[in-house]
Every structure is written in structure tokens, then in C-alpha cells.
Amino acid sequence: MSSQSNIALNNWLLTNNVENISSVDEIYRYDRKQQQDMLAAKPWDKDPHFFKEIRISALALLKMVTHARSGGHLEVMGLLLGKVDANTMVVMDAFALPVEGTETRVNRLENAIGWYHSHPGYGCWLSGIDVSTQMLNQNFQEPFVAIVVDPVRTISAGKGYKPPNEEPSEYQTIPLNKVEDFGVHCKQYYALEVSYFKSSLDRRLLDSLWNKYWVSTLSSSSLTTNADYTTGQVSDLSEKLEQAENSLGRAALVGSGIGVSGSSIEERRSEDRLAKAARDATKTSIEALHGLLAQVIKDRLFNQSLTGKRTAAALDQVEERLIFVRKIPQIEQNQLQQHQILHSLSQLQPL
User: Fold this and answer.
1) Which domain holds residue 104?
2) Cα dist from 345 to 242, 279, 283, 330, 332, whole Å
3) Same domain for 7 and 76?
4) Count: domains in the chain
5) What is the pLDDT of residues 292-343, one digit of tens each?
6) What residues does the MPN domain cover (predicted)?
7) Which pick of 47, 129, 192, 213 has the fewest CB atoms within 10 Å?
8) Do both 245 and 212 map to the same domain?
């Protein structure tokens, strides 16, 4: 493995806080009697929140992400192999299944600890079909965990996506065609604390997988790879703005018909939609700028002697745009008028 590839792999391991453990550690030992006793006791029947944490091997993590990425805009799925250790679920490996589609049901009962599937471009959460699939598996095979991977947003943002929880978390945009299903089943599942681990025995397998990933990373651009995703985000944003505009029109009619109180309620709803649209525009722009910045950095690394002045100017321009984009959320905090919000959004269109 080249030094550049090795640096990138180490950076990926550090970013995901992958823990180095000994190959003779307890986590790699399988105690059949202990597992059978745990399955017979079924402590999760008495406490629905019995499991607090899930530990995933770095090898399984990389296999899930590369498989999810290979599916493009289609959802893919696979099975997780692992065991239970007290109130912790341990995922040792992942296996891709030759199934793809817009929504996937799991009907086969395998000797596995869970399943994973992808939500390309619309966040990590469980839809109605996902919840039904999970319940079906739990009825016949417990414990069983579900992992959702969003490869598009992971690559667009340049980091791993963290699912929302009760505390304030990273804002995520939900497409209009998914918004009705989003959050409807959120009380039927809960998130686990996630940690990652690897041993010296995993190193050779990780190197083999990473060599393919590293070449793909250098030779591709997220701007072109995620072109369909970005186009869909802009189209979805346009529809949300159109809905907000229609709501403002209805608010004006309500105000003229039944008085100020009814109008103020409709206006607040419209302003809330505009604020969300502004945040969606900010997030989409930042993701695009991340892709542009990655290309500029590649250009500077490999073509510095030829295009030093041009790349330096491009970096300065990207920095100025990032500063401008990061100021957009202040519009929501100061509760400016509608035309000011729309004006700020129009400034983002050239990006």
C-alpha cells in the first residue's frame, strides 16, 4: 500500500474512532453456552431498551459503506454476523445480499444478528416498510438489529452521518416524497451508541478493501458522482419554496377573511417553511462546496507546480463562499422578512 493510501486509511480509522484491540481479546471468543443462555433468558422481553450499545468491526463498516455506495440511487441490503455480549451487540462481519430495489423486504430467516440497508440521499431512519421488516425478524429471531447507511450524504458531507436523537443533532433534509413517512414510526425504534474496533488480523483485509476505495476516491469527484443527488436536492428545494409561496398566498386570504389572528397563524407556518427551505439550501450548498474544495485540494497536491497561482485563487474564492454560506442560518435567527430570505437563497443559485 502506498504512503498516501496508508495515510488516508489511518485518517479514516481516526475519524471513526476505531479502537485497536488484541486478536486474542474476549470479543473474538465465541462462547456457545453463554449465547444459548442469553437467548433462553431473553432479558430484552422485560426491558425494551435492554441493549445500549453496538460495536462494529472496521471491516464490517467498510464492507457496508462500499456495498451501499455501489448501489447508486437504489437501496441495497445485507446481513450482519455477530453475537451478544451483555447489553452490547457485536457485529463481526457483514455480507451483501444480491437484492436491490426502491424498498426491500427481508423475508428470509438467516443465522445473523441483524441486517443493514441503504437510504441513498435521504438520511438514516426507518421507514414503514423497514419497521415492518424489523418486526418480522424480531418475531422469529431475537435479538436483531437494523443498520441504515446513507452513502450519498456520507460522501457529500465528507464525514459519517450521525442519526438524530433526543438531543440537538445535525440538521438533515427530507425529500417531499419521503417526508410523510419520516418520523411516523420513530417511537417504534431507538438508536444505540455506536463504536468501532479492529485487530491486527483485520489489517490485511482492510488494506485490500482500502486499495480499491483509495483509487476510486482519487479518480472520481463527488460533484459528478452525486450529480443526480444534488439535482434532486435542488428540485426538492424548488418544490418546498413553491409550497411556502402558496402558503403565504393562503395566509393573505385568511387574513382578509377572518381577521389578524388566523392570518398570523398561517404566516408563522409559512415562515417556518421558508426557514426550513433556507436551511435545506444552506446544507445543499455546503455539500457542493465540500466537493469543490476536494477537487481544489487534489489539484493543488498533484498539479501544484503547474497551477499554483490558479489553485491558490480558487481556494481563496471557496473560503469566501464558505463564509457567505455559513452566515445564512443567521437569517432564521433574526426572523427577517420573506423577501430577504428569498434574496439570500437566490444568491446561492450560481453555486
Assistant:
1) 3-219
2) 13, 10, 12, 13, 12
3) yes
4) 2
5) 888 888 777 777 655 555 556 665 665 555 555 555 454 444 444 444 444 4
6) 54-170
7) 47
8) no
